[in-house]
Every structure is written in structure tokens, then in C-alpha cells.
């Protein structure tokens, strides 16, 4: 075979790829009934997962975007259940150099997990303390983390400004997200059912962080 | 409202959640025609995305699992296009304390990107050098990274032992994965079409890393 260095025809420019991607999404996805800010969030979630139909599974409270965006503008932290979520947040988009925090690998986490009889993902949240007050919480992995967060708030923990509830999978994911949506008086976004994941959760943060598409 | 601390009924034990998840996946997914090792990979990919139907989009070469697994047992590195992929690899499952490498945030990467006229994701691969020889490559984000990897190999770069080709999205993702599958003589797995992502790519590595489910 004769070596070739450029046999493939593809767009090499990152900004052009983003622009073309968002144009395809806006042409294909049914964004009717969404405000412009909500649509921006949905478009980024679609971009993260490659499925325009995911819009049908997204549900958010009317105050979600405004509450989450105000928190980010005020410099509040983004608290994540998984390191993959934290690493998916584009730091350059954040409006106030917001801290992006994941306590899953804190050495105290496995100790707390044994004490409370829950997963490490759930236990990690017990280390958030007062940082939870007015924060944006992004859960993209563990249903137990989302359930435990709701338990903590019911028990008197500080209230976050908004909760991105997008754990993925087959055991507890759907149920934990419905529990968030039904919690009441807590701004939220969920992807219903089994779908979700760290990429969608991080994409939601990235959409909220800047109005630039 | 009376505060309640444990209003939700859910499984708190991580191992039990994994076991139940994998049982549901094996009950629902059509794994016919797959060997046991291939099925383990597919089950973990399904677990990562919440979609049993993704099995229809997965294609792998007959030598993919054996070649990738031998590389991991030999201590070869896992080279990732995105930090989210690297952070999704469960270090405790790796058989030989394998290095997990992502060069996207190397300070040289944006310089190379300008030089070669490609994205930072593609440019980052030019820093892999001889580490590519016999490595497991996991691409879960950027089509340009997968295209550029194939260009590098055609131009004489060291050959990896296996390529996990799972960029996600609307521009170039499908095309780059078909190019990998058609490359010839390069063990591969792809998720066809727009689907993919860092979670699926990392799940593939985690499935290869240990036979424990």
C-alpha cells in the first residue's frame, strides 16, 4: 500500500465543526415550545449524545435556567457526582471562574460510605457541606447520589440553586429522576428513563455557562 | 412538610446495583452471535449508555478483544482523545497498572494544532510518539482525532494493538468510524452512526481490563 497522509475529506476546524453540528441539530430537532434559553440547553444535550430524539425525554422546571444561570453568574460552585462530569465542564465558558468540585476520590468518602451504608457516590455528597448552598449540582452517573441529595435536602441540608439530574442506567436511574422532578420547589432538569450520563450533565452546565453557541 | 431522612426505597449497595444492572441487560439485550468476551464488552457499553439497542450499532473485528486484552496484560498504555475518557477508566480493573494518557491539555497541543491545521483533539495525538506502538487507543469524543490517527498510521506511525472508535455526534463521527472499520489490518470496535461518547469508550476499556463483571 502506498502511504498517504491526507486521504480523508473532513472538516479540520473546530469552530466550523461546532457551527455545522448545531445547525444540523436545530434543523432536525423539535424545539417547539421551548424558550431560546431552554432550547440552547437542549441543543447542547443533543450534541453530547448524538440523538435528536432525546428532546422528548427532557423535562425541566420553568425556573431551572434562570436559577442555574444566576447561580453561575454569582460565582457559585458546580458540584458533580463523578469526575467525568467535572472534566466535561469547559472551564473557559464559566462566567465567574466557578469552582468545579467532585469529592468522589476524597479519602474520607469510602469511610463515610461504610458509615451511612450507601455508595461512595452518595457518600461523597456529605462532604459538600455549606458549598451546597445556592450551588449548581450536576449528577451524571449515580442514581444513589441523586436519591441521597434529595434525602439530605429533606433533612435540612442547604438548598442548591438548581439540580441537573441525569444519572444513567438500569437500576434506580429513572426512579431517582422522577423523585427529583416531584420534589417540589427545587429547580431541576432531568432526562427521563434510562438515558443520561456525564456527557449530558456536563453539556447542560456548558450551555448554562455562556450564551455563546 | 415534615422532614424525612430516608423516604426513598432504593438499593444502597454498589455491588448489588452492578449485579442487578448486568442481569437486566443480559435479559433484555440480544447478545446472540457474540462470544463470551465480546458479550462482556457489549454489556458494559450498554451499561454506560442505558440503551440495550446499541448492540445493533456495535461492530468489532474478530481479533479486537484478543489483541486489546493482550496489550493490556502486557502493560501497554491506554491512549485517550479526551480527559473524560481517561477519567472513565477504572484504574483498579487494569491488569498491569497501565498508564492512562491524554495529551489534550499539554501546552504543546494548541501550537501543533495551528501548525497542522487541525483540531486540538487531532493535534494531541502527535505527542503520543512511540507510545502508540502496541497501545490501546480509546477515542470517545472527536471524529478529527480518529481521522488523524488513521492518517498518522498510513504515514508510518507505530501501529496500536487495537482502536476503540467511538466519537459521537453530527459532523464526521459516522464517517470516521466507517473509515476505521475499513482501514484493514487494525483491530477495532466502533459504534456506528452518531452514537458514541466518552462513557462508551471508557466502558470498553473497563470491560477489556478485567473478566470480572
From TrEMBL, chains A, B:
GO terms assigned for molecular function: precorrin-8X methylmutase activity
Domain Cobalamin biosynthesis precorrin-8X methylmutase CobH/CbiC: 17-210
EC number: 5.4.99.61
InterPro entries: Cbl_synth_CobH/CbiC, CobH/CbiC_sf
Lineage top rank: taxon: Bacteria
GO terms classed as biological process: cobalamin biosynthetic process
Keywords annotated in UniProt: Cobalamin biosynthesis, Isomerase
Top-level EC class as recorded in UniProt: isomerase
Pathway: Cofactor biosynthesis; adenosylcobalamin biosynthesis
Family to which this protein belongs: Belongs to the CobH/CbiC family.
Name by which UniProt lists this protein: Precorrin-8X methylmutase
Origin organism lineage: Bacteria, Pseudomonadati, Pseudomonadota, Alphaproteobacteria, Acetobacterales
Gene it is expressed from: cobH
Amino acid at each position: 500500500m502506498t502511504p498517504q497522509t491526507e486521504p480523508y475529506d473532513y472538516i479540520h476546524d473546530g469552530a466550523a465543526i461546532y457551527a455545522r453540528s448545531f445547525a444540523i441539530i436545530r434543523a432536525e430537532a423539535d424545539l417547539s415550545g421551548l424558550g431560546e434559553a431552554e432550547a440552547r440547553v437542549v441543543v447542547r444535550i443533543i450534541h453530547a449524545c448524538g440523538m435528536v430524539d432525546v428532546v422528548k425525554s427532557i423535562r425541566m422546571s420553568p425556573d431551572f435556567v434562570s436559577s442555574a444561570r444566576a447561580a453561575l453568574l454569582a460565582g457559585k460552585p458546580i458540584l458533580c457526582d463523578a469526575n467525568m462530569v467535572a472534566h466535561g465542564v469547559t472551564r473557559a465558558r464559566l462566567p465567574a471562574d466557578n469552582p468545579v468540585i467532585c469529592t468522589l476520590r476524597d479519602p474520607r468518602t469510602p469511610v463515610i460510605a461504610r458509615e451511612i451504608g450507601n455508595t461512595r457516590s452518595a457518600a461523597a455528597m456529605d462532604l459538600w457541606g455549606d458549598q451546597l448552598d445556592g450551588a449548581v449540582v450536576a449528577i451524571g452517573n449515580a442514581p444513589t447520589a441523586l436519591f441521597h441529595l434529595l434525602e439530605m435536602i429533606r433533612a435540612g441540608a442547604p438548598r442548591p440553586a438548581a439540580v441537573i439530574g441525569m444519572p444513567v442506567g438500569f437500576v434506580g436511574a429513572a426512579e431517582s429522576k422522577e423523585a427529583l422532578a416531584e420534589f417540589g420547589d427545587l429547580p431541576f432538569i432531568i432526562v427521563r428513563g434510562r438515558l443520561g450520563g456525564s456527557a449530558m450533565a456536563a453539556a447542560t452546565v456548558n450551555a448554562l455557562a455562556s450564551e455563546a453557541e
